[in-house]
Amino acid sequence: FYNGTYDQLVQARTGTHLRQGQLLKIGSDFYINPKNTFGFSVNGNLGREDRTGNQFNHAYDSISDALNLYSVWQRESFDPGDRYGVDANLYYAKKFETPEHKLDFNAQYSIGESTEEGFYNENTYNPSDMTLLVPGSLDQFVRTIDGNAITTIQLDYYRPLTFTKLLEDGTEQKNPGKIETGAKTTIRQVSQD
User: In terms of pTM, does the model score above 0.90?
Assistant: First the structure.
């Protein structure tokens, strides 16, 4: 820039944004008896997202406060996207005779994928009379696909314990305790394109 000059960019944009989705969830619990419970659930979702845009850009330079339009371009965009996901869950719970003595088993499998695309077009105009100089001076297309699959298996065991301590006066003092143990495994598969 020279002394006394500056650039100015004026942008005007219009656009739309549509987002929609559907969700389905089913499941059930089965009480085999008061000590054994089994259950499952499945969740599924589908989604779509569309964005559009139309942006006009006017670039000015200034010498001694007189604005001079030197560049005009338009950028049009369309960004569609799709996604889906499914989660399946299975569990079993066993209660033993002693209160708080139980075993829990959970298994979950999740899979999903999303696709995002972008279509972009740019047109350049003559600043003096706004005639189209270069149609499609820039055409772009991008696509991203992300996916994952996750399996999780978990087993938990709880058992209350009572520790008896003989006191000097011959009486017994009972001190509560418990065992909590478990195992969990997760397997992830991630893909990107």
Answer: no
The three state secondary structure string of 172-193 is EEEEEEEEEEEEEEEEEEEEEC
Q: How many CA atoms lie within 13 A of 7 on its CB side?
A: 7
What are 24-29's contacts with CB under 8 Å, separation 24+? 27/89
CB-CB neighbours of 51 under 10 Å: 15
Q: Which of 81, 116, 105, 190 is nearest to 156 (CA)?
A: 105
Structure confidence by residue, pLDDT tens digits, 136-183: 778 899 999 999 999 999 999 999 888 888 888 888 888 788 899 999
The pLDDT mean for the chain works out to 90
Alpha-carbon distance 164 to 86, whole Å?
Answer: 50
Selection from 79, 108, 95 nearest residue 33 by Cα = 95
- Supply the Cα-derived Rg of the chain in whole angstroms: 33
